[in-house]
From TrEMBL, chain A:
Compartments reported by the entry: Cell membrane
SUPFAM superfamilies per record: MetI-like
Pfam families xref list: BPD_transp_1
Membrane topology field: Multi-pass membrane protein
Domain ABC transmembrane type-1 stretches: 99-288
InterPro entries for the chain: MetI-like, MetI-like_sf
Record-stated family: Belongs to the binding-protein-dependent transport system permease family.
Biological source species: Occultella glacieicola
Protein name: Carbohydrate ABC transporter permease
Keywords recorded for this protein, A-Z: Cell membrane, Membrane, Transmembrane, Transmembrane helix, Transport
Keyword hit for Transport: yes
Residue ranges crossing the lipid bilayer per the database entry: 34-54, 98-123, 135-157, 163-184, 226-247, 267-288
Automatic annotation (TrEMBL), chain B:
Recorded family membership: Belongs to the binding-protein-dependent transport system permease family.
PROSITE patterns xref list: ABC_TM1 (PS50928)
Membrane topology of the entry: Multi-pass membrane protein
Protein name according to UniProt: Sugar ABC transporter permease
ABC transmembrane type-1 domain segment(s): 95-311
Coiled-coil region(s): none
Automatic annotation (TrEMBL), chain C:
Top-level lineage group: Bacteria
One Pfam family from the record: SBP_bac_8
Keywords assigned: Signal
PROSITE patterns (alphabetical): PROKAR_LIPOPROTEIN
Keyword hit for Signal: yes
Signal sequence segment: 1-21
PANTHER family: ARABINOSE-BINDING PROTEIN-RELATED, SUGAR BINDING SECRETED PROTEIN
Protein name: Carbohydrate ABC transporter substrate-binding protein
Lineage summary: Bacteria, Bacillati, Actinomycetota, Actinomycetes, Micrococcales
Length: 303, 356, 440
């Protein structure tokens, strides 16, 4: 692929300098601390990654007039943040309910996707049976189904089932993910040695026991990432919840949308709503982040 | 580490596994081995039948009929809707836009993600902080990304053009020039997804066995050399994974370009209308032509399949050393029969030994 | 349509019916008596789906419950009309079972909904005859006399202007003088553009915000813009379309009267704070938009005048989906919500201008002033403008293909006025091509 020279350009100098520094210090191995260049690159990346969120904070702490007048917002947040947040939370949009709904949906989806994907991944990666490869290809092909068009048939089906304006109508389609199956298959194929499975089988463990005691622990790092990704994905999803739920029973992104009106939108309030929506995920990140990173590490030590 | 220390297999050896019950256990075991694999993948297929296959077949049925979204089913028209779609210059333009935005987002995204993952793979201080920092944009809802970047890229009153003007450059026509609008939309996509792909690459990089690096160092390979002859080949399944998922997601792109202006139609010249947006407009917009929209959906589906296949074949050649892994290997092998060592098989050795 | 849906999901349906029966929605389901009517004591909940701000506050809805103790009204509010429309369309396409008891619609959606009147209960009722402006009722009535919706508000247009910018450019500032300056009762578009040319010669600001908005104002005074009376599309062949297009673009670009914004976009919003333009076509509901976007700007005022006579932009109806469980009760509620008295309250709450004739005599309306617009007597002004719309004697006919064709012209104007991609001539050719591609 044509990408390789570009990688050389972008990753090359830093990597090369890093290697040189390592050589200067005289020892090999991957455990050397990298130099300041690496941190400088990362800091720059972090700045880019974080600025739009900071911009949100800048606007959320401002007011409509000053937003319209100043394309470049004041560097430090202004004083209206808390009053804006209070106005959003105390307004007609039911943010509390939205928060609970989003929490239920995202948690259910994350748990179900991880469970079902790990099961399927174990099966696809490590078990032998007729039709395995074509079925896996089929799973991947299902990702190509354009989601927007599923709306009408799914809506018809779900209203018949009584799932319209019901959280079940959002949760059920979120319970499996082709991406998750693909992801766990890829991971388990690499991370789960056949010897372990064989050992369990020779000891007379049933398939499900083998799965639970051998595959699940091996899958943990990837499962943690998949769980987090799935949680976030449904936390921020807008379109299907918007179609199947009503504005009286919204999710958080629907609630943010509700802050916008046709004739006049106070962006300081909308951005405050964005912050309110994003903040719980930030907390989750801080709490789960360490877990996640150590999860990634656990996968690494295996080698 | 947790991986190699599950409850030790010996600990779970069932005490009651005595000779008396072997017959039953054998039968049960055989059944277990035969059925379990299908059982484990069944939740996906059952739910897919409801949320994927049913809509897809329904859509296929709709696409060969005259069908108004509100008026319902009309006459059977065969492939007329498909022909009509191809006759629409807007459809052709939408395909061009979709591929352009896709190229502008996926290529830089994958390259940046690999490079960043390589940087993050170092033994950094405050690892968690940097890794989570990279993933930060992922938690911003697309609705919010649309709002934020809509303001950043406003032509007269946006931050980006204001900064460009301040440093003495001409403001850019984010909503008037086709390529520029694609860059703006690709920026939104890249903002949200680069960190996500970085972490996926990082997880894969961490799984690369240390010995390979040590061997390379002994051979006198520099850092760069190590990256290309050890890391990249080892990442191949992940690269394939990300390219396939990015292709599928990228060609279905809908939210970002739709939120790029108030009308959500890709601007007055449809400069940033993508195929998914076009489908939505034909079905839900002024025409309410559900039949034609269904045909577009199917065409999009087929395009995605073809492009994903092509990308898969290309990315399979990224590196030549080392054997491909995981689903990629499965895919590469087709039936999955060739080159299997007896040990590389979970179900069969045990069941075979019991069967004989 | 509903039959089709059922057939398609026949298998799932069996399963679904059981579920629906098991966990059916409102308390009314529990009542085994099928002959309940509005007068009974049965406790029911009616849902009302609206968008934007119809002025239906909780207090206002509580009044209904006070008068009808067995009815609780639940308000389902979408922020934006487009959101509500996507929801309504998806619901209707799926058989309409997820709809509220009352669904609000905008006048612009009528063209397509009138083609499928069976989705909605026929609301015609001798008791409400003569309640609304004739044009309001006519637009929602099918050929065979079914009434699809009860009118709520209308969007009679006046001219909103910046008195301070007028003064700086040496133009009169009093609203009566401005109305006279723009041509008074016989105002024409030429008058309006001519004053604009004087204004821009003496000011850094543009005369109006958006060329599309001007075109919209002009084309709404053409009876058969893109279709014949029977709905046959005529593309862009009506010379009045081309005339309006040329007039708007020549004023906008050649004379520099337009600020070059697309309405509702970020730049347009910012334009309010940057003195970017001095006038706007101003339907009654636009007051809220101007007041919000131009917060802190002093000088906005409203002149009781409109080029070419009257012009209406927007306005809504309440419909009752035919498949609802409480159609009769919902109709009674819709009747109450659209009564002149209730609508005047809604007007006080949200500035939604009544479509009910009697409301124009109501002192709460006629006495209404808007402090933001220099205490303009908006009740009186918009009542006058509303009657002027009715005096036009016809309504622009908007059939099933109206908006698809209109979109092409609108895009063409945007390409010239906002993005500057093309000149007027090329853009027109592109519009003709776009209309041809519609394959109508």
């Amino acid at each position: 692929m044509s990408s390789i020279p570009v990688i050389a350009q972008s990753a090359g100098p830093g990597a090369a300098r890093w290697a040189a520094r390592r050589r200067r210090r005289g020892t090999g191995g991957a455990n050397r601390r990298p130099g300041w260049v690496t941190y400088a690159i990362l800091a720059a990346v972090l700045l880019v990654a974080a600025y739009p969120l900071y911009y949100t904070l800048q606007l959320a702490s401002s007011d409509a007039v000053s937003i319209a007048r100043n394309p470049i917002p004041a560097i430090l947040p202004e004083g209206n943040l808390f009053s804006n947040i209070a106005e959003v939370l105390g307004g007609r949009v039911p943010f509390g309910k939205a928060f609970v709904n989003s929490l239920i949906i995202s948690t259910s989806a994350a748990v179900a996707v991880v469970a079902f994907s790990t099961l399927a991944g174990f099966s696809f990666a490590k078990l032998r049976y007729r039709g395995r490869a074509p079925l896996l290809v089929f799973v991947i092909a299902t990702m190509a189904v354009p989601t927007q068009l599923g709306i009408v048939p799914m809506f018809i089906l779900f209203t018949e089932l009584g799932w319209a304006n019901n959280l079940i109508g959002v949760i059920v389609p979120a319970m499996v993910s082709a991406f998750g199956v693909f992801w766990m298959t890829q991971y388990l194929d690499q991370a789960l040695p056949y010897e372990l499975i064989e050992a369990a089988r020779v000891d007379g463990a049933s398939m499900i026991r083998t799965f639970w005691h051998v595959a699940m622990p091996a899958a943990r790092p990837a499962a943690a990432m998949l769980g987090l990704f799935t949680f976030v994905q449904h936390w921020v999803a807008f379109f299907w919840p918007f179609i199947i739920l009503t504005s009286n029973n919204p999710t958080l992104p629907m609630a943010v949308q509700l802050l916008q009106a046709n004739y006049f939108t106070d962006y300081s309030l909308v951005m405050a709503g964005v912050l309110v929506t994003t903040f719980p995920l930030l907390i989750l990140f801080v709490v789960a982040g360490r877990q996640l990173v150590s999860g990634i590490m656990a996968g690494a030590v295996k080698g | 580490m947790s991986v190699i220390t599950p409850r030790p297999p010996t600990a779970q050896r069932p005490r009651e596994a005595t000779a008396r019950r072997v017959g039953f256990r054998q039968r049960l075991g055989r059944w277990d081995v035969k059925v379990s694999p299908y059982l484990y993948i069944s939740p996906f297929f059952i739910l897919f039948a409801v949320v994927g296959a049913f809509p897809l077949l329904y859509t296929a049925y709709v696409s060969v009929h005259e069908w108004n979204l509100l008026g319902g089913q009309g006459d059977f028209v065969g492939l007329t809707n498909y022909g009509d779609v191809f006759a629409q210059p807007t459809f052709i333009k939408a395909i061009g836009n979709t591929f352009s935005i896709f190229a502008l987002s996926s290529v830089p995204q994958v390259i940046t993600a690999i490079a960043l993952a390589a940087v993050l793979n170092a033994n950094l201080r405050a690892k968690t902080f940097w890794r989570m920092g990279v993933l930060l944009p992922f938690i911003v809802a697309p609705v919010a990304v649309g709002l934020i970047f809509g303001r950043l890229f406003a032509d007269d009153s946006g931050l980006v053009n204001a900064l460009l003007t301040q440093v003495g450059m001409d403001p850019l026509g984010w909503h008037s020039d086709r390529l520029t609008s694609h860059v703006a939309i690709a920026t939104m996509v890249n903002f949200r997804w680069t960190g996500y792909n970085t972490l996926i690459f990082l997880a894969a990089m961490q799984a690369v066995p240390q010995e390979l690096y040590e061997a390379a160092i002994i051979d006198g390979a520099g850092r760069l050399r190590q990256f290309f002859s050890v890391t990249v080949p080892q990442l191949r399944p992940t690269i394939i994974f990300i390219i396939i998922t990015a292709t599928i997601g990228g060609l279905q792109i809908f939210d970002e370009p739709r939120m790029f202006d108030d009308q959500g139609l890709g601007g007055p010249s449809r400069n940033w209308m993508t195929v998914a947006m076009y489908m939505y407009d034909v079905g839900w917009g002024n025409q309410k032509n559900f039949g034609r929209a269904a045909a577009i959906a199917w065409l999009l589906f087929l395009i995605i399949i073809v492009v994903a296949l092509v990308n898969f074949l290309i990315s399979r050649r990224i590196a030549t050393s080392d054997s491909p892994r995981g689903a990629a290997r499965l895919l590469a092998r087709g039936s999955g029969e060739a080159g299997h060592t007896p040990a590389a098989d979970a179900g069969r050795p045990t069941s075979a030994s019991k069967e004989t | 349509m509903r039959r089709r849906t059922r057939a398609l999901v026949a298998t799932a349906g069996l399963f679904g019916l059981a579920l629906t029966a098991a966990c059916g929605g409102s308390p009314g389901d529990a009542d085994p008596d099928p002959t309940t009517d509005a007068g009974s004591d049965e406790q029911i909940t009616l849902t009302v789906a609206t968008f934007n701000d119809f002025g239906y506050t909780e207090e206002l809805l509580a009044q209904y419950t006070a008068e009808h103790p067995n009815v609780v009204v639940e308000h389902v509010l979408a922020a934006r009309a487009e959101d509500a429309r996507a929801n309504l369309t998806t619901n209707l396409a799926s058989g309409g079972e997820g709809l509220s008891d009352i669904e609000a619609i905008e006048v612009d959606w009528l063209a397509e909904l009138l083609q499928y009147p069976d989705y909605f209960a026929d609301l015609s009722d001798p008791a409400v005859e003569g309640r609304w402006l004739e044009s309001k009722v006519a637009a929602a009535t099918t050929e065979d006399g079914r009434l699809l919706g009860y009118g709520t508000d209308v969007g009679p247009q006046a001219i909103c202007y910046r008195a301070d910018l007028f003064a700086a450019a040496g133009l009169p500032t009093e609203r009566a003088e401005v109305a006279e300056l723009l041509g008074g009762a016989d105002a024409t578009w030429d008058d309006y553009f001519e004053v604009g040319r004087q204004f821009v010669a003496a000011s850094d600001s543009a005369w109006y915000d958006s060329a599309v908005s001007m075109y919209q104002g002009m084309i709404n005074q053409v009876e058969f813009a893109y279709e014949e009376g029977d709905g046959t599309p005529i593309g862009l062949t009506n010379p009045a379309v081309r005339e309006a297009y040329d007039a708007v673009l020549s004023a906008s670009t050649d004379d520099g009267l337009s600020a070059g914004f697309e309405q509702w976009q970020e730049d347009w919003v910012a334009g309010f704070q940057n003195d970017a333009f001095a006038t706007m076509l101003c339907p009654a509901w636009m007051q809220a938009g101007i007041e919000g976007n131009a917060a802190g700007i002093e000088g906005w005022d409203i002149a009781d005048v409109f080029p070419g006579g009257g012009g209406n932009w927007g306005g809504s109806y309440l419909t009752v989906p035919a498949g609802g469980e409480h159609v009769e009760e919902a109709q009674a509620l819709a009747e109450w919500l659209t009564s002149p008295e209730t609508q005047v309250q809604a007007f006080a709450n949200a500035g939604t201008f009544p479509s009910q004739v009697d409301a124009y005599e109501n002192p709460d309306l006629t006495g209404a002033v808007n402090p933001f617009f220099n205490d303009a007597p908006v009740g009186e002004i918009f009542a006058n403008r509303s009657l002027a719309v009715d005096e036009l004697g016809f309504l622009p006919y908007k059939g099933p293909n109206y908006f698809a064709i209109h979109q092409s012209v609108q895009d063409a104007i945007l390409r010239v006025d906002v993005t500057g991609e093309q000149n007027a001539e090329d853009s027109w050719s592109a519009a003709e091509q776009a209309v041809a591609d519609l394959g109508l």
